[in-house]
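Help wanted!
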Amino acid sequence: MEQKLFKNYLGEKRLKLTKERLAVLQEVFAFHGHFAPEQLYFRMRDSGSKASRASVYRTLTLLVECGLVQRIARSDRGNVYEHIYGHGHHDHLICSLCGEIIEFYSENLEKIQEEVCRRNKFRGVSHILEIRGICGRCKG
Amino acid sequence: MEQKLFKNYLGEKRLKLTKERLAVLQEVFAFHGHFAPEQLYFRMRDSGSKASRASVYRTLTLLVECGLVQRIARSDRGNVYEHIYGHGHHDHLICSLCGEIIEFYSENLEKIQEEVCRRNKFRGVSHILEIRGICGRCKG
DNA sequence: GGTTAATTGATATTTAATCTCAATTTCATT
DNA sequence: AATGAAATTGAGATTAAATATCAATTAACC
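Answered by r_m:
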């Protein structure tokens, strides 16, 4: 299903569905969780599917463009992504102590953002909301 | 006033108020707007005050820790900061086409975030909300 | 003023991400 | 199935932000 969407997107843009792009897509959707591009690259090497580092980065950009993948944060150690398709949109609480990432979704939050955009004559496309603080476990 | 706060913070942590730290602080508050660490470094060189690149970065970290400065985004070209003291908290709309950054503040948004934290037994400390899209001017 | 621990700065290093370009592959068209 | 144009790949070079190193310096406390 993701493949179909990806293929459509590539078709519209007259881009090609290569083995490498397919391999990246599959690995991205085989794994459920947050990941960095480098992690993805090494996981692919381990699992035998082949795509160069350059292709991994390039394909990730495409997957974000077509809405299958989301960049959810920029940590000190690079970008963090997650796949979207099949999961609802959500935002993140990030614990500054243990690094845990908690997902949440708030309809109200989304509505207010739309309102903000409207007031500023802005066409919102995507957003990143990360709330940093201390998680319940670390608070003790 | 910022100086007083900064001095207090350093005192508490048994850190020293050096010429360099002071110079960074002053430059940060002399300029109203968003800036990258590199910009700050070069602006300081131009204006004659001296601090090494390393000190600029190190001092920025301190200023964020003590709440005088906020990291508001991580662009592809590095982090973006702004000073806080004297300005209310706010979030940002970022135009993907021209790069313009529009500030906004929504009380409701803040309240909902508090609610989200409460529900997740999370103690929120700070947050970054950047809404990306197309600004009114670029929409045409 | 002396002592101690923190700080500085020039430079090297790290690391993510992008760029280069010849060789290869896809895909629409025969 | 063969062809050809245009897109894509990949190994390695490159870029750029940010951090680490460490001897020399400096602030803060007595």
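OP: Thanks! One thing I noticed: The mean pLDDT of chain A is 90.
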